[in-house]
Amino acid sequence: MNVSKKYLFMGALVLGGLCALIAYKMYHKPHKNIVKAEAVAIMTASEMLASYKNDEVAANGKYLDKILAISGTIASIKVQDNQISLQLDTGDPMSEIICNLDPFTKHKRTDFKVGEQVKLKGVCSGYLSDVVMDRCVEQPR
Amino acid sequence: MKKIKIVLYLLSFTMVNMVTAQKYFTKGAMVSFYSSSPLEKIEGVTKSANCVVDQATGAVEMAVLIKSLIFAKALMQEHFNENYMESNTYPKATFKGVITNIADVKLNSIGSYTAMLKGNITIHGVTKPLETSATIKSDGIKIGVTTEFNLTVADYNISIPSVVKDNIAKVVKVTIKADLEELKKAQ
């Protein structure tokens, strides 16, 4: 093997390694850091439900998959296989804002109480009988 | 007098029927999607699906928000939503059907039952018939429903690019676990 061939071979090796590294990084890219992410809208639980009840398609256009900050009173708390779900009161007995705490974040606290006022930031997943927010983290009020 | 007694007797039956004709409901049903191929295993889970079962008619309805399925890898979740399910356009998947043997499935009495489900499932804007069975366990007050079925990805107008065709199963497994409580009217 002469010198130029040797350099070519080494270059190809480095390039190949770099490609593999990029592919690996892309494949394992982390979930969006919800703690650092900026909320595109801030509203109360009842305001959020009102906009979904008023026009679901329009509300989805504005909020679906967006990071939102929602404030409200905890109506109930549900824990299901490590997933904590805080349901915020909207004033409507049939509908709440279901806020599922983010499984990828280490939360400062998880000892929430019913009746407590909270502000949560998360990603809006849409509306069934309730509005569902996933990947929620608590925000300072 | 006898007539009144008969009327009262019949009336008592309708009252009992009214009491037993409950609906069961949850907004915390677990739904998981699992694709297993030789190259990788992909799983997405939500615990925020809606499910309602009506004892009187056997009607079952379920709704799932596609975006609420959480995957271990961000990239998988992104591809699932953007490339395959197009969840901005089709944010929900739904099932509407009946328990065909509802007469044998007594939701308000303790026991374990096999419910035969028949209905239509809508995913990615495509509606297909679905027949499966579910196990329903009742403690007299609450019911636990579990079921598992397979779906063929291509049936729902979802095309998988050939580059990743070995990474994604052609048939995916859907698992549902739901604990339903009696829906009380006029609270």
Q: Quick gist of this model?
A:
The complex is a heterodimer of chains A (141) and B (187). With 141 residues, chain A is α/β, with parallel strands linked by helices. Chain A is built from 3 helices and 6 strands.
What labels describe this entry?
heterodimer; A: 141 residues; alpha/beta; 5-stranded mixed β-barrel; B: 187 residues; alpha+beta; 8-stranded antiparallel beta barrel; 2 helices; elongated
**Which structural class should the secondary elements of chain B be placed in?**
alpha+beta
Give the ordered list of helices and strands of chain A: HEHHEEEEE
What's the gyration radius of chain B in Å? 20 Å
Order of helices and strands of chain B: HEEEEHEEEEE
Query: What is the gyration radius of chain A calculated from CA atoms?
Result: 22 Å
Number of helices of chain B: 2
Strand content of chain B: over 45%
Please provide the count of β strands of chain A. Answer: 6
> Shape of chain B from CA axes?
elongated
**Physical arrangement of strands within the biggest beta sheet of chain B:** 1-2-3-5-6-7-8-9
Helix content of chain A: 25-40%
Describe the structure.
The complex is a heterodimer of chains A (141) and B (187). Chain A has helices spanning 3-27, 45-54, 56-63, and strands at residues 41-44, 67-80, 83-88, 97-101, 117-127, 131-138. Chain A has 141 residues and is of the alpha/beta class. In chain A, helix 2 (45-54) packs across helix 3. The radius of gyration of chain A is 22 Å and the shape is elongated. Chain A starts with a helix and ends with a strand. The model of chain A has no long low-confidence stretch (mean pLDDT 93). Chain B is α+β, with helices and mostly antiparallel strands and 187 residues long. In chain B, 17% of the residues lie in helices and 50% in strands. Chain B contains 2 helices and 9 strands, in the order αββββαβββββ. Chain B has helices at residues 2-20, 74-85, and strands at 23-36, 41-54, 59-65, 70-71, 92-99, 111-123, 126-138, 143-152, 171-182. An 8-stranded antiparallel β-barrel of chain B has the order 1-2-3-5-6-7-8-9. In chain B, a hairpin with a 2-residue loop joins strand 6 (111-123) and strand 7. The mean pLDDT of chain B is 89. The interface between A and B is medium-sized, with 30 and 23 residues.
